[in-house]
Structures are given as structure tokens and as C-alpha cells.
Design goal:
12 strands; RNA-binding; 399 residues; Tyrosyl-Transfer RNA Synthetase; Rossmann fold; alpha/beta; Structural Genomics Hypothetical 15.5 Kd Protein In mrcA-pckA Intergenic Region, Chain A; 5-stranded parallel β-sheet; 3 domains; elongated
RNA sequence: GGGGAGAUUCCCGAGUGGCCAAAGGGAACAGACUGUAAAUCUGUCGGCGUACGCCUUCGAAGGUUCGAAUCCUUCUCUCCCCA
């Protein structure tokens, strides 16, 4: 059964079409729908890739539907095995509750706390009896579980796969049932977990919820978005960083960013994507609109405007940024001329003298906006000196 | 428990006695150009020295050798196959 395999190829057109038609039916009921997103608080800091469903939840919220944000304090005890190539590190309930604080704080950058129902799945999962778990477990043919690509791969490679991991989907599915929701949103990889909710709801004679999933958002360079790749845009980024990182999105990824991260009205989004396909249109202009939209969502229109202005000034017009960090010279370095190479290393602004020399040799070291070409150049003591290393690392050395 | 493969500079990955600070790719950094911090092109990419050079590095510790990432011994860890 195709829909049970849980991989990114699942679902397919027919399922999506079915979900769309079920959603249309449900909307005809004319009441606010309960739309839920669950997340396990197993990561300390989040990026906009994690936030694609959150961003969509906000759209639902703005349309007047009841949005539920579920914190997986119990599912987090297992850790979602979806897409994992090995057993996950497990957290204690205390750790999870601690991380949940940061988590909700970040989520409320987008969602309206007043209008959001926040729940913890420990509320019901902790109360299930063994008999109830048996009943739930009986819903899932083992074949569905072991044919999921992630599990199948691990089994094929002879790697550890433990029973508790196979229960994850059951737990998430039960959440959907307990929350009596109409729609569950999630990443595309969550198909299996979302469908589990439908099976459980159907088992209990309920109308199954609609599964609404979103494709994976790639990092700004086209690889998987990950903090360690340095290609992520993080929820807690400053407006300037967020804007700048948006401008760094590869041109060909722009359409997916428009779809997944902005809250343009559908027609507007389509228009932007159409513009991108036109000849002679500078993608930069559209990228700026995406950046402004994104920063506005997280920081407000004013901050977005300011960030855009700063980008224009600093990057495009190559002017000085607003606040350049000042570095006061420690006593032992002050008072005498010192070679730039030594100074920069002493201040920990570079890992080695060779690195600074290289920068100078390549014409990327500037003092008071003048390129330094002599690797032995020194700085005279006293006063404030503006230093620029490379494209955008500015410092003021004082003392 | 038995058999096999492997651990290389940030990552992947070549390298089986000197030409190896170590191919190639990726990332990163710089410069050029541009339509942006995109794309493209060029360069750099262990440390110290202006420099012929010196020092440290190829899982760990020893050993063989004029000379080892490459050979031997032991150890640690990882993966695969069989039971």
C-alpha cells in the first residue's frame, strides 16, 4: 500500500486530490476548523525550514480557524524516527519540558498566543492503559511499519530498530484523535504519521482529519537546511541577518521560498513566480520582496524596512554598516606600534597569522577603507582605526 | 563467537616506502565581474618565517628503515558478512 510507506514519494496525486476535496467539504460546514500542528521539543533552536507548517498555521489562524499547537512532551520521549538512519538520542521528560519553553517562545513569533490553543500530548498519552495501547496497536499491520523506507533500510542494514520506535506513529495518530481536529499540517515527510491519525480516527468511528503537508524547504544554497551547513535562516535571527540571508538564497530556489515561507496572497505569489520566469527581470528585486515579507512576519514591517535599507547601503552601495563593533585594545597591546598581522591574531579575529597574511595578499584587508598591501604594515598606537576584513567584517580598534 | 573491511588535513575521498603538507570534489575565504551576500570566473585553503627553509599532521602507542600516511606489533573505535 503506497500510502503506508512514509517516504517522500508517498501520497501522490490522488491522495492530495482527495485531501483537497475533503477539505472543501469540511469548509462547507461553515464553522471554524480545528487545525493542528504537533512538534516535539527536541531541538534548541529552530530555522524557517522547521517553521514552514507553523507559518501555514498562522495563515489558518488569520482566516479565523482555531489553531492548536501541540507540544509532544510524550512523543518526544521516543523521538520521531521518520527519516532517521539510526536510533535517536532520547530525552527525559524534564529536558523536554525545558526545551518546550524555548520552543513555544519561538512559535509565538508567528502565531498569536491569544488565539492559539497550546496542548501537551502527555495530557492523554500518559493516561493510556495497556489494554488501550493493544487496541491501538492492532490497527497497524506490521507490514506497513516495516515497509517504511527508514525502517526497512535500517532492518536491511542489520541496524538496531526497537519496538518503541515503531509506536511513534501510533502516538501521533492518537494525538489527532484526542484533539478532535479537522486538519493536521506537517512536513511532507510526516505523511505516515498524519495518516496514522486517520486510521485511528476511523477506527473510533470519527470522520478522519485532513492531512495537509508541505514540501521540504531547502537551505539557501540548495542543500538540506541545517545550522551546521550555515545555510539556514533561523527564527531568532536579527532582522538584518534574516534579510541578508534571504538575499543569499540561490535564484533557482526562490519559487520554493515564495511558496513555503512567505505569506503573500496566492495570486500575488503566483505573480511573483511568473515575474521570475520573465526574461530581463532581475531576480534580486523579487528576492528583496521575499526578504521583506519574511522579516515582516517575524519582526514587523518597520524592522523589515530598516533591514532592507541597511542591505541597500552596506551591500549594494558598499557603505559602512550602522553599528560596527568597537574593540578596545588590552593594555599589553596598546601604546606601541604593532604589526596588523600580530594584532588581528592577538584579538582573536583570525586563527593564524598566515590567514591574515593571505587576506592581505589577496587585497581583502582594509584600514580606513584603504587596501593594505604590505604584510608587514603596522598600526600606530592611539585613536580609533576602522578595519575591514573581506567583504563584510568590520571592526573599530580603539586604543 | 567466527570471518572480512576500515579509521587520511573542516566534510567526502585518493594515496601501499622517498617526487606527500598529502590528488580530486564539497564547504569556507579573497578577488574580479555582475543583476544580490545569486550565478560565473580566478586564486587561496596545517603552523611559523620576507625567504632557499623549519615544525606539526594521515585513529593511539611502539618498532623496522638513511627515509613511513604507506611495512610490522599491540591497542582503541567503526562498519559488513556468517552464526
Amino acid at each position: 500500500m503506497n500510502t503506508a510507506t512514509g517516504g517522500e514519494e508517498t501520497g501522490g496525486r490522488s491522495l492530495r486530490a482527495q485531501m483537497a476535496s475533503e477539505l472543501r467539504e469540511r469548509l462547507k460546514e461553515g464553522r471554524p476548523l480545528r487545525v493542528y500542528l504537533g512538534a516535539d521539543p527536541t531541538r534548541p533552536s529552530l530555522h524557517i525550514g522547521h517553521f514552514v507548517p507553523v507559518q501555514k498555521l498562522r495563515v489558518w489562524q488569520e482566516l479565523g480557524h482555531q489553531v492548536v499547537f501541540l507540544i509532544g512532551d510524550y512523543t518526544g520521549l521516543i523521538g520521531d524516527p521518520t527519516g532517521q538512519s539510526s536510533e535517536r538520542k532520547r530525552f527525559t521528560h524534564e529536558q523536554l519540558m525545558e526545551m518546550a519553553k524555548d520552543y513555544t517562545q519561538q512559535v509565538f513569533r508567528l502565531l498569536d498566543p491569544e488565539k492559539t490553543e497550546v496542548r501537551f500530548n502527555g495530557e492523554w498519552l500518559s493516561k493510556l492503559s495497556f489494554a488501550q495501547i493493544i487496541e491501538l496497536a492492532a490497527i497497524f499491520p506490521l507490514k506497513w511499519i516495516v515497509s517504511r523506507r527508514d525502517f526497512a533500510d535500517r532492518l536491511a542494514r542489520g541496524e538496531s530498530l526497537r519496538l518503541h520506535e515503531t509506536l511513534y506513529a501510533l502516538m501521533q495518530g492518537y494525538d489527532a484523535h484526542a484533539l478532535e481536529c479537522d486538519v493536521q499540517v506537517g512536513g511532507y515527510d510526516q505523511h505516515f504519521n498524519l495518516l496514522a491519525g486517520r486510521w485511528i480516527q476511523e477506527h473510533f468511528g470519527r470522520k478522519p482529519h485532513i492531512c495537509w503537508t508541505y514540501p521540504l524547504l531547502m537551505g539557501t544554497d540548495g542543500r538540506k537546511m541545517s545550522k551546521s551547513y550555515g545555510n539556514s535562516i533561523d527564527i531568532l535571527d536579527t532582522p538584518e541577518d534574516m534579510y541578508g540571508k534571504c538575499m543569499r538564497i540561490s535564484d533557482d530556489l526562490l519559487p520554493s521560498y515564495i511558496d513555503l515561507t512567505t505569506n503573500f496572497a496566492p495570486a500575488e505569489a503566483e505573480a511573483l513566480k511568473a515575474r521570475l520566469r520573465e526574461k530581463g527581470v532581475n531576480p534580486m528585486e523579487i528576492k528583496k520582496q521575499v526578504a521583506t515579507n519574511l522579516v515582516t512576519q517575524y519582526h514587523g514591517a518597520e524592522a523589515a524596512q530598516a533591514a532592507g535599507d541597511q542591505f541597500q547601503r552596506v551591500v549594494q552601495d558598499k557603505a559602512l554598516p550602522d553599528d560596527i563593533p568597537e574593540i578596545a585594545l588590552p593594555a599589553e597591546l596598546a601604546g606601541a606600534p604593532i604589526a596588523w598581522v600580530d594584532l588581528i591574531v592577538a584579538l582573536n579575529l583570525a586563527a593564524s597569522k598566515g590567514e591574515v597574511r593571505r587576506l592581505i595578499a589577496q587585497g581583502g584587508f582594509y584600514v580606513e577603507q584603504e587596501t593594505i598591501t604590505d604584510p608587514a604594515a603596522t598600526r600606530a598606537p592611539g585613536g580609533t582605526t576602522l578595519v575591514r576584513m573581506g567583504k563584510r567584517r568590520y571592526f573599530k580598534i580603539v586604543g
